[in-house]
Amino acid sequence: MSKLKIGILGSGAGSNMQSIVDAIEAGELDAEIRLVMADVPDAKILDRARRHSIPCRYLDCAPWKTKLEGPAEDLCISLLKEADVDTVVLAGFMRIVKPGLLGAFPGRVINIHPALLPAFPGVHGWTQALDYGCKVAGVTVHFVDAGTDTGPIIVQRAVPVMEDDTPETLHARIQVQEHIAYPEALRLIASGRCRIDGRRVRIAPPQS
Ligand code: GRF
Fold first, then answer.
1. pTM value?
2. Which CATH fold topology does 112-208 show?
3. Which of 23, 82, 111, 201 is found 20 to 30 A from 117 (Cα to Cα)?
4. Is the distance from the beta carbon of residue 15 to the nearest atom of ligand 1 less than 6 Å?
């Protein structure tokens, strides 16, 4: 059991970061958020971090639009290391992370994806599920590997797809579960009960 030292990368609203902050503040997650970085200068996730006095900054990832590579990746890694981060949490980070970051934090980069993987990787997983005609959708928290949304799964939570769902209503229902799933996955990691075993994440029973 050890307190997680978390670094968060995001691009948008930061509601998942908020769920992690709330879990920590409620004493439900033994962790500390040591740094938040966003690749969008006015991303709301940075405002949220400031409101909670969490160190945060914009990370300029140009010239690439969809990945974290080159000098930006190097800077990202050195800032995370300087902040003494041991677990990197991708919370709505709209870029593909590359072997540089994964190698710097082996087995310690986590992502949340708004679909029940391996179905519907990539962008707008909820819209893909709706368009496909799924009756059930959901969320996956997983370790990140070299593929896109392919790493070992830690937690999944399902939601029903309703007759009158739009992409927005379905995404909102999924987000409610995201905000439960991310703290839950991080709690499992903090407890030391999670072990990657090939494709599977083995979860040991809680110690009494
Ligand atoms: C979430 O739906 C997450 O699953 C996806 O991007 C969205 C981020 O939302 N990867 P937020 O910025 O945490 O509010």
1. 0.96
2. Rossmann fold (3.40.50)
3. 23
4. yes
